[in-house]
Amino acid sequence: MLTRFKAFIIVPVMALALSMMPAAQPASAQPAVAQGAAASGSKDRATAPRDELAGKLSRREVQRSPLSIPGREMVQVETLIPAGVESGWHVHPGEEVGYIIAGEVEMMVQGRANVVLRAGDGFLIPPRTPHNARDIGPETGRMLSTYIVETGQSLATFVDPHTHK
After folding, report:
1. Domain count, the chain
2. Per-residue pLDDT at 1 exceeds 90
3. What is the mean pLDDT of residues 103-128?
4. Mean pLDDT across the stretch 94-103?
């Protein structure tokens, strides 16, 4: 019961805190080292694996940390998707657990029916499953994603959903 209560309080508080933060600059406008190091307060990120979505969407790494699971790390990212823009079909080397902070996003996941997610909705994308997110407007979509991924792998890689298994 106490755990459920904590989750009931912590998730809205995190969402409120993120909604009060200034909008992130496009990732292409931020040097990779400064983006990772400033966000997590940790060592130089020049060697961090590339995130192909960072050149297309505004993404800000909130934190990155090794996990107790050997060979896995947690990466948390805030993503802004302008109205009408799609992320493009892509995969991650692990699970993506996400939460819509603002806007309405159509989530397309290979093998599933498309769904429209609104502020307050959560989602889970299995490892290496092609998916695409499109903001349906009118406001910019804003989501917080936590990835449980293989250490040293690119966080996101574009794919052709018709040829990927």
Report:
1. 1
2. no
3. 97
4. 98
